[in-house]
Specification:
Blueprint lengths: L10 E8 L4 E8 L4 E4 L6 H10 L3 E5 L5 H4 L2 H8 L3 E3 L4 H5 L1 H7 L11 E3 L5 E4 L2 E7 L8 E5 L5 E5 L2 E2 L2 E2 L9 H12 L7 E4 L5 E2 H7 L11
Parallel strand pairs: 3-4, 4-5, 5-6, 10-13
Antiparallel strand pairs: 1-2, 2-3, 7-8, 8-9, 9-10, 11-12, 13-14
Length: 224
């Protein structure tokens, strides 16, 4: 993956695939103001090095959901930068159980430190001169969210809700196949075709491309 995207208005977005699951950690770099990280992955050292090179404050961490491959890097970033972590309350059980999640896969992880600030449907977060709007998109997990930004090129940070040519699994604790399909149909496929989707794994894509050819189109919303 090319880890630099073209500027989105005053905002630059960088992807750093991290850890054994190659999770995309998204670094939001506004023209002015604090940096933000979406999903810091499991092995955050490259992200910490990039933040140090940029030499600007880290305003916070935004989690699209609470699975270990997206949230395990929070401890290292909070320890280094003292920044808050934001997540949807419906995924608090996953974050509280992060150490246990790691043990299932044979990893030794640190818990997410400090208070976790809640994300809610329709909430708007200031990032530089722009805003991110929170879209609650459960199904992959109960507290899954996407984050939309209207700019010269509209974008959505979509976590594991939707990928290029695929969609999120629903067989993990709290997953729900019918709910995921409804989230994608109602919250993502209603956006303009040119909207750029920045997923939690793999390449970027667009709403138009996925609305025309994603396998979710032929799926009945049932597991198996």
């Amino acid at each position: 993956m090319n880890n630099r995207l073209n500027p989105v208005g005053p905002l630059k977005v960088e992807a750093l695939p991290l850890g054994p699951f190659e999770t995309n950690a998204w670094l939001l770099v506004p023209a002015q103001g604090d940096l933000w990280v979406v999903d810091p992955g499991m092995d955050p050292e490259p992200l910490l090095e990039r933040l140090e090179a940029l030499g600007r404050p880290l305003g916070g961490i935004l989690l699209t959901h609470g699975h270990l491959d997206h949230a395990a890097g929070c401890a290292a970033l909070v320890r280094r930068h003292g920044c808050p972590v934001h997540a949807h309350p419906a995924d608090r059980f996953l974050l509280d159980g992060l150490v246990e999640q790691g043990a299932w896969y044979g990893f030794q992880l640190e818990p997410v430190p400090g208070d976790i600030l809640p994300l809610a449907e329709g909430q708007r977060l200031l990032v530089g001169q722009g805003e991110l709007e929170v879209l609650h998109t459960p199904g992959h997990s109960p507290g899954g969210v996407c984050m939309r930004m209207e700019a010269d090129v509209p974008l959505v940070l979509c976590g594991d809700t939707l990928f290029a040519g695929a969609f999120g699994r629903t067989d993990l604790p709290g997953g729900n196949a019918a709910v995921l399909k409804r989230s994608i149909d109602q919250r993502l496929f209603t956006l303009p075709d040119e909207t750029v989707l920045l997923p939690g794994h793999g390449e970027t894509t667009t709403v138009g491309r996925e609305r025309r050819g994603n396998p979710i189109l032929g799926w009945d919303g049932e597991d198996g």
